């Protein structure tokens, strides 16, 4: 899962010579037929910001030092299909632990309590990244904000998940964190 080489901060090893040459970590965008095939396979329409992302870059990485690769559309799948054991482990307490009330759950940003995730959503998450440095990204179609799906960042240092209103909001947060880290390193 995690390689100590990458944990030590040597993110540069993940960047290919071609990415260096073109100065872009993305892949060519997915054609409409491929996105339609993904939606047919998943049996659901993708949220607008994630679909637009795949149209612009059908795979991307590294995103940052924690998320090494966003999957291309051919590899995107439900978490329960890719990480069934993990979903089963998380669901152990779903029936005995009461769900987080809406007034606590729908708080995003710095005030969010990252411990408060809803276990009943685990089975329906769409895994959109590979495992990186002990973490991954997923989308939750069960919670929508203006047609966008809630986005989750799981990591070993987060007791639950960092949640965002959309894939676009999650990517903006990762970009802001990267810029802050980069400016602090100077």
Automatic annotation (TrEMBL):
<dbReference type="InterPro" id="IPR037883">
    <property type="entry name" value="Knr4/Smi1-like_sf"/>
</dbReference>
<dbReference type="Pfam" id="PF09346">
    <property type="entry name" value="SMI1_KNR4"/>
</dbReference>
<protein>
    <submittedName>
        <fullName>SMI1/KNR4 family protein</fullName>
    </submittedName>
</protein>
<feature type="domain" description="Knr4/Smi1-like">
    <location>
        <begin position="29"/>
        <end position="173"/>
    </location>
</feature>
<dbReference type="InterPro" id="IPR018958">
    <property type="entry name" value="Knr4/Smi1-like_dom"/>
</dbReference>
